[in-house]
Design goal:
This protein has 66 residues and is mainly α. It contains two helices and no strands. The chain has one domain. Helix content is 80%, strand content 0%.
Length: 66
């Protein structure tokens, strides 16, 4: 259940990030240091990391070596 919630949250946060980037590109103001984009990108990165750790934990508990 937790994995599903994390995947849903990741989908929402990625959509927000994509929207911010598209908006910045449309306004010709895309900058690598754009704080809002960087903040959202860090959220997405953290969620991906959480999901990966959950997957690794499940594999370990099952003895799965894939």
């Amino acid at each position: 259940m937790k994995k599903t919630n994390l995947n849903k949250e990741l989908k929402v946060e990625r959509a927000k990030l994509n929207h911010l980037i598209e908006e910045a590109m449309g306004n010709n103001k895309l900058k690598l240091q754009d704080e809002e984009i960087l903040k959202q990108s860090r959220k997405v990165d953290a969620l991906v990391d959480k999901i990966q750790k959950e997957n690794d934990k499940r594999k370990k508990s099952r003895g799965d070596s894939r």
